[in-house]
Amino acid sequence: MLDHTDMHILEELSKNSRIKMKELGEKVHLTGQAAASRVAKLEDSGVIEGYTIKVNDVKMGYSVHALINIYTKDTHHQPYLSFVKKQEKYVINNYKISGDGCYLLECKFSSNESLDQFLIELNKHVNYKLSIVVNKQ
Fold first, then answer.
1. pLDDT, average across residues 69-78
2. Which residues is 66 bridged to in the sheet?
3. What's the rounded Cα separation, in Å, for the pair 83 and 95?
4. Can you give the pTM of this predicted structure?
5. Phi/psi of residue 78, each to 5°?
6. d(CA 45, CA 36)
7. How large is the average pLDDT for residues 88-99?
């Protein structure tokens, strides 16, 4: 079970995973060594699964962010899943969901033209409903 200090450590690491352990310790009222020990325990227990970077998609050339509700045409989803696996250039996440649709596909595209081409190919496997992200709050 995580205590208040562990939760505070996770909060600070989520803001800046490159923080120095001494600085982290100061923020959570521990020594740098104690903070490092806590982080190691969180990693060993699987609470912290890894570290990542945040990339600016627009500066990387991806100006279109799309959320696509997927409606499979039958109970055999493998053709869709195979298609998605080959589209890693565009696909951010593919969530299997309950509710409205079978999957929620989160994608990024460099242009409306590349989105349109993706949707043409996608429609060979499934039906969909498209939403475009206008602004990330």
1. 92
2. 107, 132
3. 15
4. 0.77
5. -60, -40
6. 14
7. 95
